[in-house]
Amino acid sequence: MCWTAKSFVRGLSFSVKYCPKGNHLRALCLCTTIKPNKCHILDWPRSPCNSTVPPGRILSWRLFSCKEGTKIHCKRGKITSITASELLYKDLLKSEQENWNKISRSYKAMTKRIKEKIEELYNKYTLHLESPRDFFFIFFYTYMGFSGAFIQRIRISPDERYLATSLKSENSEEATCVIMKLGDVPIVEEAIPNVFSFEWATNDVLYYTSQKNLKCQNVFLTTFTNQKYTKLVYTEQDARFFVDIYCTKDRRFLTINSNSKTTSEVWLIDCRHPFKLPVLVQARTKGVIYHVEHRNNDLYILTSYGEPAEYKLMKASVASTGMESWQLVYALEEKTKLIDLEMFRDHCVMFLQKAGCLYLNVIAFVSHSVQSIQLPTWACAFELEPHPEHASSTCYFQLTSPVHPPRRFAYSFKENNLIEQAAEEVPIIMNCHTTRLLAKSKDETLVPITVFHNMNSKELHRKPLLVHVYGAYGIDLNMSFREEKLMLIEEGWILAYCHVRGGGELGLRWHKDGCQHNKLKGLHDLKACIMLLHELGFSQPKYTALTAASAGGVLAGAICNSDPELIRAMVLQAPFVDVLNTMMKTHLPLSIEEQEEWGNPLADEKCMKYIKNYCPYHNIKPQCYPSVFITAYENDQRVPLPGILRYVQKLRKATLDHASRTGKKGNWIPNIVLDIQASGSHCDSSWEDSLKEVAKHLAFLKKELQV
């Protein structure tokens, strides 16, 4: 069999195309062009390739470090040093593991039942979306010896002789770029460690960024000619910025994108002359984000430049790329979220969200017209199909929601119409009702809530409610399909997604209004959302649970301190719960970069006091808390285990102190459970591990809410 790039990628895309974003697929089907999310109830936020936040930089890297007194130990003739904190950490870790082993027995039977039910729904709604043609994956994972790795990215050289792919294990954030020469028998030409992004400039010139300690600041080129060599092309000096590589859809330019949380700078590499020095598009201007595409010798620039500070599509000649030459093509309406943008030869497709509904805006460059189509109201998320042909006359994408499996749609540029390409084997969800609400926050800002419940449910005030929140980095809550969410709907649960400030659901301004000195607004938003749900008869506090992950743990932990009476139970996954101590340690790799999100407490005393006012760890006090289940990972580089251990210890002490002070017999004492995973990391786990996590979380919630 002759292995051509076209047949290889066709097989990959056929197998990957219909994979839902939120699932690690079983066995060999683990491949996706964008790193997939975990499959769990916590809606792990991920960054799309064209996010305003640099890809891979959404969640900050949290490290544990201590400088306390050191004990010297001698082992096999070698002197090693162990700090007092490290000894304490080991003792706490052992204690928590023993505690979990005892507690987990009480959840075992229910966890098994939940796991079986989720697998049943997976087989019904998701499994058929995969291709049975797993030969390509068998080749990668077995024949080529790359078992146990996730494929993050695939790029084919223009002449289709080479395939470059990035592979990473579930216990590491660093990937290895493997370059294969395709032919009758594909062979590995090279394996480059610690690579984040890469693109082919020509048939045999590859550009890539190196990643170290979750930071990307160097760009290299490497050749696959007879005289192979590698050289450094670009270095970013500012620690706040993260660098990635992108290829324009017409393959005319590679772009070196250097982004902080709020500012961008782009350099161009002409693919016709890949060895020439990069050319600057526009020098970085504080607060201005921009991304670049190319068409007919013009740059199309997606940017926040100008008022209002929301995204606009502008253009400039390649010969004159400075900001003074940018001309407006299209501006988004107020409170409109740009979800994604795709360039075709004669059209630009924008996926937008406004007032909770999704829209497809198609800009025709030839006729200078704009076609706007409202997508089905049940849809909450979309996924553009990977690697669309630049000259295609049709744009293919999928629509989904937490309780609706992906459904494929096609927009025809020629016919100007939208067609659903229904698959007969995909069951249609008919018994779920979607409601969109607006809660009035403390400053009277209206905060969107998306609510799902079973249409056949009666007495909603007696039904369990699961509230979702994130509210950081301008990232939206993940609204893609999850089998476990559909299971909960079938069982009568209510699901609520609170789109609080700090997230990106209403555009760039919505994020700005919830970061740095505005963080408390997100907390006020969350409180207003939960209170409105209860007022409208969606459950009540004793049946209400809250779920969050990573930076979402800030608001979840904060509301447990300020208003614990609103919820009965909470599930957190790798939560960021000690903002102040982390931001005070500037020697940590990402603390300086994170100042654009949280502020700089070392340089600003007001900022220090403000963070201390909402930081979950610093505001724990003796009171009646909800029950809490926390999942943490030994290998987590972003939210290290020691910080979570300290939080759990302090929270347990506060609940016991409160119980002893009140002294009433039969007082309810919340369960504070910590499940420490030896495998997995902040962003990736295997399908089996993720499924187990989901089942344990739901078993805990059902027990605490007495469902």
UniProtKB/TrEMBL annotation:
<feature type="domain" description="Peptidase S9A N-terminal">
    <location>
        <begin position="151"/>
        <end position="417"/>
    </location>
</feature>
<dbReference type="Pfam" id="PF00326">
    <property type="entry name" value="Peptidase_S9"/>
</dbReference>
<feature type="domain" description="Peptidase S9 prolyl oligopeptidase catalytic">
    <location>
        <begin position="480"/>
        <end position="706"/>
    </location>
</feature>
<dbReference type="GO" id="GO:0005856">
    <property type="term" value="C:cytoskeleton"/>
</dbReference>
<dbReference type="GO" id="GO:0043001">
    <property type="term" value="P:Golgi to plasma membrane protein transport"/>
</dbReference>
<dbReference type="GO" id="GO:0042147">
    <property type="term" value="P:retrograde transport, endosome to Golgi"/>
</dbReference>
<comment type="function">
    <text>Serine peptidase whose precise substrate specificity remains unclear. Does not cleave peptides after a arginine or lysine residue. Regulates trans-Golgi network morphology and sorting by regulating the membrane binding of the AP-1 complex. May play a role in the regulation of synaptic vesicle exocytosis.</text>
</comment>
<dbReference type="GO" id="GO:0005802">
    <property type="term" value="C:trans-Golgi network"/>
</dbReference>
<keyword id="KW-0378">Hydrolase</keyword>
<protein>
    <recommendedName>
        <fullName>Prolyl endopeptidase</fullName>
        <ecNumber>3.4.21.-</ecNumber>
    </recommendedName>
</protein>
<dbReference type="Pfam" id="PF02897">
    <property type="entry name" value="Peptidase_S9_N"/>
</dbReference>
<dbReference type="InterPro" id="IPR051543">
    <property type="entry name" value="Serine_Peptidase_S9A"/>
</dbReference>
<dbReference type="InterPro" id="IPR002470">
    <property type="entry name" value="Peptidase_S9A"/>
</dbReference>
<keyword id="KW-0645">Protease</keyword>
<dbReference type="GO" id="GO:0004252">
    <property type="term" value="F:serine-type endopeptidase activity"/>
</dbReference>
<dbReference type="GO" id="GO:2000300">
    <property type="term" value="P:regulation of synaptic vesicle exocytosis"/>
</dbReference>
<dbReference type="GO" id="GO:0005829">
    <property type="term" value="C:cytosol"/>
</dbReference>
<keyword id="KW-0963">Cytoplasm</keyword>
<dbReference type="InterPro" id="IPR001375">
    <property type="entry name" value="Peptidase_S9_cat"/>
</dbReference>
<dbReference type="InterPro" id="IPR023302">
    <property type="entry name" value="Pept_S9A_N"/>
</dbReference>
<keyword id="KW-0720">Serine protease</keyword>
<dbReference type="InterPro" id="IPR029058">
    <property type="entry name" value="AB_hydrolase_fold"/>
</dbReference>
<dbReference type="GO" id="GO:0006508">
    <property type="term" value="P:proteolysis"/>
</dbReference>
<comment type="similarity">
    <text>Belongs to the peptidase S9A family.</text>
</comment>
